[in-house]
Structure formats: structure tokens, C-alpha cells
Amino acid sequence: MTEKIKYKGYKIEIIPDTYPENPREWGNIGKCIFFGKHSYLGDEHEYNADAYNGWEEMEAAIIEGEGIDILLPVYGYSHGNLTINTTGYSCPWDSGQLGFIIVSRQGMDECKGWKRITEGRKPKLYEALNSEIKILDQYAQGDIWGYEIEKLDDSCWGYYGQEAAIEEAKAIIDYHVQKETLTR
Asked: What is the C-alpha end-to-end distance of the chain, expressed in Å?
């Protein structure tokens, strides 16, 4: 649904981005290892859920296979739309575990330039994993937006969260208002 905002004499339209970029295609520290009907949201992997007797056995195999023990479970709640997090949901019928997000050595090296994990880095890595899941949740829910500014013939897309698109559009208007003031 489109939202129209008036700001400093300009009309801003905030519009859903119908062709958003999948955040799993970005440079990520984490690797999403998902199973079942929502596995398409995760990254490619070689693990087969049928080969394990439950999540604990699967987790141990992933830790051994990836060589890193920094991971978080990922849960989904699907009742119409899908929402995901790393803490779980209370509904026993429409929610459950989708898989895991694990720090990948390649992602850690590419994003942070780190070759090894120290105790001081662990909280930052867990924070990065949670952040990636929050962004992936926005993607799964279609919470990606663009803006169009009528008088300026300006638009941009790919903002995760409606507020981010609004803030950017207002910043563009502020820039143009300031520029006009300086040239008078």
C-alpha cells in the first residue's frame, strides 16, 4: 500500500518495492542453513534434514562440517505471511524451527577481515547474525520500499523498512531546500 506524505512543500510517495534484492546475495557474515518449504530463503548447502534425528544432531553436524561453533537457531511463524527470528514463537501450530544461521569463515574474512574468532569478537558476530535475520525477515514480509518525490522527479528503491525510505526522501528534500536557499 502506497503512503503519501507532504514535507516542506513536496509530495513524497512511499511505495512497496515489488522487485527487491535478496539480502542473501549481499556480502554476509552468516550462512543460513534452512530446511523444509522455507529453505529458499537460506543459502545453498549440502545438509539433508532426513539424515539427522532432530535439531540437536543436525546442529552438531553443521558445527563439525563448517568448523565454527557460532550459530543461532532460526524460527519461523507462518500464518498468512512468514516472519522469522532467532528467539522463537509461542504458537505450537504455525511456528517452528527453520534451521540455523552460522558464521561462515569466508563471510567473516570478507566482511570483517578477520581470520580467527576471539572472545571479544563473539558478541559482534552474534549481533551480525541477528541483524542478518532481521533483514531477511523484512525481505520475507515484503517490508522493502521505494520513494518518489514529485517536484524533484527523484526516486529510489530498496529500502528495508518503510521508515528508512521516508528518512531518505526527507533528506533529499532537505538537501534541495538548503541548495535553493544558498543560491538565492
From this structure: 38
Identify the domain containing residue 166 by its residue range: 3-19+146-183
What span, in angstroms and rounded, lies between the C-alpha atoms of 72 and 126? 8
Tens digits of per-residue pLDDT, 57-100? 999 999 999 988 899 999 999 988 899 999 999 988 999 999 99
Which is it for the CA torsion 68, 70, 127, 146, positive or negative?
A: positive
The pLDDT tens digits for 98-152 are 999 999 888 888 878 888 888 999 999 999 999 999 999 999 999 999 999 999 9
Q: Are residues 123 and 176 in the same domain?
A: no
Separation of alpha carbons 72 and 91, rounded Å: 20
CA atoms of 124 and 55, how far apart (whole Å): 25
In angstroms, the CA 153 to CA 155 distance is 7
Q: 61: which 3 cell numbers?
A: 553436524
Question: 99, exposed or middle or buried, with CB in 10 Å at 0-12, 13-18, 19+?
Answer: buried
Same domain, 30 and 115: yes
pTM of the predicted protein model: 0.88
